Amino acid sequence: MSFVFDPSKPIAIGSDHAGVEYKTVLVKWLADKGFEVKDFGTYTTDSVDYPDFAHPTAASVESGESSFGILLCGSANGVAITANKHQHIRAGLCWENDVARLVRMHNNANIICIPARFVALPLAQQMIENFMSTPFEGGRHATRVNKIACA
């Protein structure tokens, strides 16, 4: 199943308390660019459990309701691990532009996971733009991606 960004579908986004400030800015930034955004929370800096927000974000992408997803937490490891429990999700942890491009080109990622405590907001925005605009290369990478599923 190849992911291709579909601007007619919403972008799913979720975060824990460590990523909520970035998420709030990103939701507005994406909306200002004309994209519909489906925000799965959290909405405050009160301590929460990241799976409570990563699972519904991933489920929205997996079902096809949303075109792709954005997840944020302190390190982005927790949300990436959680999202990748979903059979048809390939969530990539990104901390620089080249990684955001490569998770799309080589891994056909459909969720970008951003470590809010380790990247500046402008870099997060650039990574999302790169993620959205980079196509999957297919070829030898498709063979590898097709071996990821356990079922």
Write a brief structural summary.
This protein has six helices and five strands.
Summarize this structure as a short list of keywords or feature phrases:
151 residues, RpiB_LacA_LacB, isomerase, Ribose 5-phosphate Isomerase B, Chain: A, RpiB_LacA_LacB_sf, 6 helices, alpha/beta, Ribose 5-phosphate isomerase B
Write the layout of secondary structure elements.
Elements: E1 11-15, H1 20-32, E2 37-39, H2 51-62, E3 68-73, H3 77-83, E4 91-93, H4 97-105, E5 111-115, H5 121-133, H6 140-145
Parallel strand pairs: 1-2, 1-3, 3-5, 4-5
Helix pairs in contact: 2-3, 4-5
Overview of the molecule:
Helix 4 packs parallel to helix 5. The chain has 151 residues and is of the alpha/beta class. The chain has helices spanning 20-32, 51-62, 77-83, 97-105, 121-133, 140-145, and strands at 11-15, 37-39, 68-73, 91-93, 111-115. Helices cover 40% and strands 15% of the residues. It has a single domain (11-145), classed as Sugar-phosphate isomerase, RpiB/LacA/LacB (Ribose 5-phosphate Isomerase B, Chain: A). The protein has six helices and five strands. The model has no long low-confidence stretch (mean pLDDT 94). Strands 2-1-3-5-4 form a five-stranded parallel beta sheet, sandwiched between helices. The two termini are 14 Å apart.
